[in-house]
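Could you help me review a protein record that somebody else here produced? What it holds is a sequence and that sequence's fold in token form. I need someone to confirm that the token line plausibly describes how this chain folds. Take the sequence as given and treat only the tokens as open to question. This is what I was given:
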Amino acid sequence: MDGECSITNAAKDKIYAYASTTANHEVDYIGVIVYVDQYIEETGKWGQIDCWMVTDEDEYFIITSKTLTVERGHYYRVHADHFARKDPDTIEETFSYTDGVWLP
């Protein structure tokens, strides 16, 4: 199983977040949880501004994306939790991360 995510500057006040999970073969259950964070300079930490989950059954691939309107003048990043289950005893999980992108 493999997973990836990305983030791009879509417009002056928009970002585009994407994530996908790919299994090596059809699985009983596949999914991805996508987290979008904004960097808060005052605290020096990342704060979550959006999160969503997409799942499917009897598939080997899942994809999701979203365009978000955000405040300019901040860094944003995406990270995702990817998972697949073939049977109740066989569950795989992996994670993917992006660097922060600046929205001027």
Q: What stands out?
A: The first strand starts at residue 2 and ends at 11. The chain has a mean pLDDT of 96.
